Amino acid sequence: MNSALKSKLRLALRAKRQSLSGDQQKVAAQQLMRRLIRLPAFRNARHIAAYIASDGEISPAPLLRFANLNAKHCYLPKISPSATNKSMAFYPYHHRQQLTPNRYGIGEPCGLHRQAQAPHKLDLVLLPLTGFDKKGRRLGMGGGYYDRAFAFKRNSKNRKPLMIGLAHHCQEAHNLPNDNWDIPLDFIVTDRQVIKVKKR
Ligand SMILES: Nc1nc2c(c(=O)[nH]1)N(C=O)[C@@H](CNc1ccc(C(=O)N[C@@H](CCC(=O)O)C(=O)O)cc1)CN2
Ligand SMILES: Nc1ncnc2c1ncn2[C@@H]1O[C@H](COP(=O)(O)OP(=O)(O)OP(=O)(O)O)[C@@H](O)[C@H]1O
């Protein structure tokens, strides 16, 4: 079963990113920013969703600061407080804004419901990866939050929003299992490389 295999891989890949030192994390976040800001996908985007790093994830914080200073509109995910309804919405974020920890201890904006941005109106989504492979398959934290929020992309001809998965280079796996609900990525960017995912 894919789910058992995914859980096993998740544990091993999370351990890898958790073992990085504070200095390694800082350097990786800077390298990530340098690679991302060169991409037309970033340059052309006005509305960008990212995340606050947790659990050793590569941090988009330097990039969010750069984006804000360059007049881009940034957003962070905010999950539904209910443990059963695994949905999330995207709220405006400015890099100096105060955040509140969610159920998993991840900082979230305390925005009002009417401020939420519809996922299809985002230009670019930078999503956290637990693992990835060369073919562009991804492994998340297992909640299915991103798969659900962007499920509309599977039946849409519109390329928007562009999906870029972010990870440390050490989170590469050989061959990840794929489920039909997994949202395909357009690019994967790590501290060491940019992978353009081939369309299937
Ligand atoms: N930085 C960041 N923000 C994010 C995500 C993410 O992966 N990274 N998400 C992407 O989906 C959403 C939150 N999803 C998450 C799903 C599971 C766990 C997690 O730590 N699960 C634990 C234990 C769960 C529990 O005890 O209830 C685990 O699996 O060990 C964290 C976030 C929205 N925000
Ligand atoms: N569009 C969807 N509608 C309902 N449930 C879904 C959808 N997509 C995924 N799921 C459910 O989410 C669960 C987690 O899926 P999976 O293990 O692929 O998560 P993930 O991709 O690691 O997480 P994330 O999307 O948060 O990064 C699965 O049980 C799956 O059935």
From TrEMBL:
Segments traversing the membrane: none
Cofactor: Mg(2+)
One Pfam family of this chain: 5-FTHF_cyc-lig
SUPFAM superfamilies referenced in this protein's UniProt entry, alphabetically: NagB/RpiA/CoA transferase-like
Keyword Chaperone: no
GO molecular function annotation: 5-formyltetrahydrofolate cyclo-ligase activity
EC top class, as a word: ligase
Catalytic activity as recorded in UniProt: (6S)-5-formyl-5,6,7,8-tetrahydrofolate + ATP = (6R)-5,10-methenyltetrahydrofolate + ADP + phosphate
Assigned protein family: Belongs to the 5-formyltetrahydrofolate cyclo-ligase family.
Name of this protein: 5-formyltetrahydrofolate cyclo-ligase
